Amino acid sequence: FVSRKHCRFCRLSNTSFSVFRFLTTKEKFHELLDSGVKCPNDDKASDNAVPKETTEDSLEEPQEKKFKVDPDEQERTRKRDSKRMRGQNKSRPHMKPTSYDNRRLCPSIIQERETKCVYGDKCKFIHDVAEYMALKPADVGEHCYLYDTFGKCHYGLSCRFARAHISADLKNLANEERVKAMEGRTPVRNSLDKDLQWRLRKKVVPFTASDAYMKTVSQENLALVKTIGPLTDADVIKLRQCEKKQCGNLPFRRICKRFGADITCGEMAMCTNLLQGQSSEWALLKRHESEDLFGVQVEGCFPDTMTRCAELLNNKIDVDFVDINSGCPIDLVYKKGGGCGLMTRTNKFEQIIRGMNSVLDVPLTVKIRTGVQEKANIAHKLIPEMKKWGVSMITLHGRSREQRYTKSADWDYINTCSQLASPIPLFGNGDILSYYDAMKARETEVSGIMLARGALIKPWVFTEIKERRDWDISSSERLDVLRDFTHYGLEHWGSDTQGLEKTRNFLLEWLSFMCRYIPVGLLEQVPQRINERPPYYMGRDYLESLMASQHVGDWIKISEMLLGPVPKNFNFLPKHKANAYK
């Protein structure tokens, strides 16, 4: 017996196939993936497939003796393991990409400089090319994306696709015609200049406009306001890169632009880290040439640092708008008064918005949630005030901080707030996973919609919305999307071992979202809801089943199809314990 709730995931649309055809159990699902054979549901597979015969003469080891297990002890162990596998893997160990390539070739040799290495014998890198080539992992493929795109790969001998552009005498080749065609082109902007980084670290960068604004704020307003936590913006905020939602990176945004996204925004950057010149934080501000309407998102909780950060961004990078993230629910951010904490600190919030507006030449936008507590909405009280403070646009996520991403987004409340925001545009956010969801959202008075998780699960949702249709995208097409991502990742992070493994890490993070997608052709009722989790099901081919797996070992298999085998010491711990690989 199969309940109606489960049946909705299992019937192939517009065919006479059985409802039960795609349902399976957890054991059979993983047995199929481990076997590596075609899916039984593959239309091309024979219905009368004969299992491989085994000979009677085959020698097998006898089974180990099974010991009697105490049922009570077995139940206690099961409950303990079940408890351990719930929730998130907090403070995940960060495996640096350099760990996979300890013996690296000296940059002076990679770049084929005429002068010798300035560090001489003290250099920690290898200078013997023959020794390096003996230690270097095998190449991944025959074609180098960087060489094919730009005419020259600047990673030379260290490139994991080096055979495409390395001569017999180990010299890095160049396609002069292609190199000439790429002259004067800057694919990525907003990089951190070394001189600016030095001046930020030495605190010698002038903030004339910000200092002028802070003088206009009365001493009474400058008094310290008690926050929930002891941290301030003057402290060093340590959010490791692996703990951020690292799927909104530049290569992924290029995928979204290709599918039709109109506006893109960088990942949340901490204003204090930007003011300190941290390279990892400035990397979040990079903009690709395909991003025609691009903004950066910053977080902070005090007017002086936020205003200085805005002035710095206004003078040093190329953006179309700056967004304040006052909807971040992360504890570390909230407890110091930032993120959602700003929604309850209206005095500081006003000073931040007015101060940033005074130093910016581009529009200032704000992202908020419905409130902090689940049943105590306050966005409708803030929006009329933000109109007075000079906000150019508001994005409202239809959940409170307490809800995080559980339950459904409140679009009725978003509609009410959009009416209050008029004539300022208000974009709605929450639970958009199909063009049906988008059309329903546009029935409200919002000026636009913002996608986050929906784009991570199925980035082609932008095409669906633009063309107003469902796209039953095949597994091979989805693999092509992932392949394009790896190409963009190698271009962004590098085609050497370090860049390749960094690309793999971001790919695995993305696959932890994409595995939630249910192919349209398997749905009895469309659309799929963003918080629905399907039962175990067989795809229409082996690759589709593999992409449906929520096991990190299967994600690694997909990454190996695109980026070659993982290193021997490879380590990846997924965000959720339920996906953990042992």
Overall description:
The chain has 582 residues and is an alpha/beta fold. It is built from 24 helices and nine strands. It starts with a helix and ends in a 19-residue tail after the last helix.
Please give the order of strands in the largest beta sheet: 2-4-5-6-7-8-9
Mean pLDDT: 82
Termini gap: 33 Å
Q: Which percent range fits the helix content? A: 25-40%
Helical run tally = 24
Strand content: 5-15%
Radius of gyration: 27 Å
Principal-axes shape call: globular
Number of strands: 9
Sketch the major β-sheet.
Answer: 7 strands, parallel
Structural class designation: alpha/beta
Low-confidence stretches: 1-20, 43-62, 220-245, 577-582
Summarize the structure.
The protein is of the alpha/beta class and 582 residues long.
Keyword list:
582 residues; alpha/beta; seven-stranded parallel sheet; two-stranded antiparallel ribbon; 24 helices; 37% helix; 7% strand; globular; disordered N terminus; disordered C terminus; mRNA processing; NADP
In terms of topology, how is this protein built?
Layout (H helix, E strand, L loop, with lengths): L3 H4 L18 H10 L35 H14 L22 H4 L18 H7 L9 H6 L25 H6 L6 E2 L4 H8 L6 H9 L33 H10 L4 E7 H5 L3 H4 L4 E2 L5 E6 L3 H14 L4 E6 L4 H4 L11 H14 L4 E6 L9 H11 L3 E5 L13 H11 L4 E4 L5 H8 L5 E3 L2 H5 L3 H7 L7 H19 L3 H18 L27 H7 L3 H12 L19
Parallel strand pairs: 2-4, 4-5, 5-6, 6-7, 7-8, 8-9
Antiparallel strand pairs: 1-3
Helix pairs in contact: 9-13, 9-15, 10-21, 13-15, 15-16, 16-17, 18-20, 21-22, 22-24
